[in-house]
Write a structure and sequence with these properties.
alpha+beta, Immunoglobulin-like, five-stranded mixed β-sheet, elongated, binds heme C, binds copper (II) ion
């Protein structure tokens, strides 16, 4: 009895889940928003209708013959074995139909590869489990990760996915492109095979390690177009969506300007409250570490060590920062993390109840830097250390400390 009830509850849940999934589910191919996607849609419809016509013709004839020429009416089976005429007819007609369909299909497939005369190029690198976008013409370069709300919700069983807009289909930094521009994409991967797919653009393209695949698009109207990685690329394959925002040229130019400005600025070294460090630290953790070390910091036994109660985490901070930046043969290096994110992250993993550590300390962005780092960050600034003096202490490396002592 209990089993039946559970089964019933299960199927009700399943049915309600399916229903919400059906809301934006259509049977046909999407029309999309590009010249190419319209073309592919038209080709798909053309071939569909050819198939429908053939189906109606063949089955119509068959059912008509079966019914009207049935044995009970006294019909005799016609005998036309080895009739050359019939054999020629039923070879030639399908051949003509196939050629008729192959011609437009071949032209369409050739057009998909016509990346010449594109006005800009974007390199897309698939990584476990996010996308890396590099605008080859203007130097914009960023990573696009699953948005924080989805990331957290799919990992915490008590959170409700229905409360998250575009659950699992949203990212922190979408790919921004101009409309009415021919854009060439270059696809590759730094680990396993991924596949970049935005249905509204009309195609998907594999991102293979060691290879570069090309594709192009020309989006006509502004909008937000969503897609996913469609290659089974490992455990978190379902958590690397694609979001493309197409903007009018003018808005796009403005976006390029502000993005380049932001990109050329160094990290924000200003002092933060403890609450801010912890909150931002959670974002950094969710983006970079959670896939392996898990939302509760317990890791996965045998694969990824726990950060909870780990001596490396709650011990010496400089060593912790050094470890995270350097990585190991089994853990990726996080050299890319700017000082503010490093400070937030370190504060978070040492002090968050979610991770299960409570060292009771905090780190400001400047404390995650050495004087050498500062010189590197602000090469034009003679007294780079000044940047941090107002905010907090800077710990010189042994090298700079001894150099300073010697001079
Ligand atoms: C791709 C999986 C992966 C990611 C992502 C990852 N780690 Fe690790 N981490 C590992 C593995 C594997 C080890 C064990 C390293 C070894 O033994 O060589 C490890 C070890 C550690 C340790 C040492 C733990 C101990 O007690 O030995 C710390 C600290 C750590 N990681 C922090 C982080 C932080 C912080 C991030 C995010 C910025 C992060 N890791 C991202 C896989 C990962
Ligand atoms: Cu993937």
């Amino acid at each position: 009895m209990k089993k039946t009830k559970q089964l019933l509850a299960c199927s009700v849940l399943l049915a309600s889940g399916l229903e919400s999934a059906h809301a934006d589910y259509t049977l046909n191919l999407v029309k999309g928003v590009t010249q190419l996607s319209h073309r592919l849609y038209d080709l798909h419809m053309l071939i569909l209708w050819v198939c429908v016509a053939i189906g109606v013709g063949v089955f119509g004839t068959m059912f008509y013959s079966i019914y009207h020429h049935r044995k009970s009416k006294g019909h005799q089976a016609a005998q036309f074995h080895e009739s050359t005429t019939v054999e020629i007819i039923w070879t030639i007609i399908p051949t003509l139909i196939l050629i008729g369909m192959a011609v437009p299909a071949t032209y369409a497939v050739m057009d998909i590869d016509k990346v010449e005369e594109s006005e800009m190029s974007i390199k897309v690198t698939g990584k476990q489990w996010y996308w890396d976008y590099e605008y080859l013409d203007n130097g914009i370069h960023f990573e696009s990760h699953l948005d924080e709300a989805s990331e957290k919700t799919h990992r915490v069983s008590t959170m409700d996915p229905r409360s998250v807009p575009n659950y699992l289909l949203n990212v922190d930094k979408p790919l921004v492109i101009p409309t009415k521009t021919k854009i060439r994409f270059l696809f590759t991967s730094s680990d396993v095979i991924h596949s970049w797919w935005v249905p509204d653009l009309g195609w998907k393209k594999d991102a293979n390690p060691g290879f570069v695949n090309e594709a192009w698009t020309y989006v006509e109207k502004p909008g937000t177009y969503r897609g996913q990685c469609t290659e089974l690329c490992g455990r978190d394959h379902g958590f690397m969506p694609v979001v493309v925002i197409a903007m009018e040229q003018e808005q796009y130019d403005a976006w390029v300007k502000t993005t380049l400005e932001k990109q050329s600025q160094g990290p924000d070294l200003s002092k933060q409250s403890r609450a801010s460090l912890l909150a931002k630290g959670e974002s950094v953790y969710l983006k970079n570490c959670v896939a392996c070390h898990q939302i509760d910091g317990k890791g996965i036994s045998g694969w990824y060590p726990a950060l909870r109660d780990s001596g490396k985490v709650i011990g010496n901070v400089d060593q912790l920062i050094g470890f995270v930046q350097a990585g190991t043969s089994k853990m990726p290096a996080f050299k890319k993390l700017p000082a503010n994110e490093l400070a937030e992250l370190v504060t978070y993993i040492r002090n968050s109840a979610d991770i299960g550590n409570n060292v009771n300390d905090e780190f400001q962005p400047c404390q995650a830097l050495t004087l050498d780092d500062l010189d590197e960050l602000f090469p034009d600034n003679d007294d780079a250390g000044q940047q941090c003096k107002e905010h907090g202490e800077v710990k010189p490396t042994a090298k700079t400390a001894s150099a300073a002592a010697g001079s």
